[in-house]
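User: Teach me something about this protein's shape.
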Amino acid sequence: MKASKTAVSANGKKAKGALAPSAAWTKVQLARHPQRPFTLDYVARIFADFHEIHGDRAFGDDQAIVTGFAYLGDQPVFIIGQQKGRDTKENIKRNFGMPNPEGYRKALRVMKMAEKFKKPVITFIDTPGAYPGLGAEERGQSEAIARNLLEMAKLRTPIVASIIGEGGSGGALGIGVANKVLMMENSVYSVISPEGCAAILWNNREMIQQASEVLRLTAQDLLSFKIVDDIVSEPEGGAQLNHDQAAANLKKALEKNLKGLMGLGPKALEDQRYQKFRAMGVFQD
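Assistant: First, the predicted structure itself:
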C-alpha cells in the first residue's frame, strides 16, 4: 500500500481518489493539518491581556516556542506553547515548530517566574520534535530538555499541558511534565513519528499506516493507558474547520482541570505530578 496516495481533505474526509486510511493515520494527518489552530490561535481566543515574554537571557529568542503572561478568566497564568507557521516564510521563522535549546531554556525561565509569583503554568504542545540540527546539539539540546524534565517534575505550582496537534518525542515532553495532560481529539502523541517507526521496524516508509496503528498514538489510546487525563472534543471533521469552537472546548477543559489543582499546596502538587509519571508503564500479568 502506498501511503503517499492517502490523504485527508480540509473537511476531514478522505480525499478523492485516495486509498482508505487507517484510523490512526487519519488522526496523524488531521494533527498535521496546515489550517489546524496553533498555540497563538488558541491564546487569542481563550486568554485575555496576553503579554509575550522573549528570550532565554543566554543565547537568543527561539520563535518556535512562545511564552507569556495572560488571564484565563480572572486567573493570572503563564503560557508556554510550541508554534508552527502557516506559510513558508512563517515556518522558517518558527523553524517548523521544532524548538532549539534556547526555546526550552526560555520555557524554563517562564516556569520559574510562575513558581516565584505562585501562578499556574499552561503549556501547548505541537511539535514534530526538538530541532536535531548541529547548532542545537552544540548548544546542548539534550541537556536543555533533560533540565526541563527535572525542573517541571518538582515545580511547586500547578501545570496543565494540552496536546493540540503533534506531540513528538522529547521535544514535546520538554514542556509536557504536568499535573494534568489534556489532548485534543485528533491530536497525536508518540515517542517517534510513523515515518521514523516504519523506517526502523520495516525499513520501508510505505508502512507508515501500520506504524501509526502499532504506535498507539491517538488520544483514545493514550487515555486508556492513563498517559493523558482528558480528551477535548473537536468540531466534526477536525479543529481546522472551526477554530472558535475548538478553542471554546479547550477553554472549558482548561478551566475545569486547573480549578481542581488550585486548592493543592506546593508539596501536594509536586507529589501528585511525581506519582502520575511514576505510575506510567506499570502493568500486571
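Now, about its shape. Confidence is low (pLDDT under 50) at residues 1-7, 14-19. The longest helix spans residues 243-262. If you'd like, I can walk through any region in more detail.
User: That's plenty for now, thanks!
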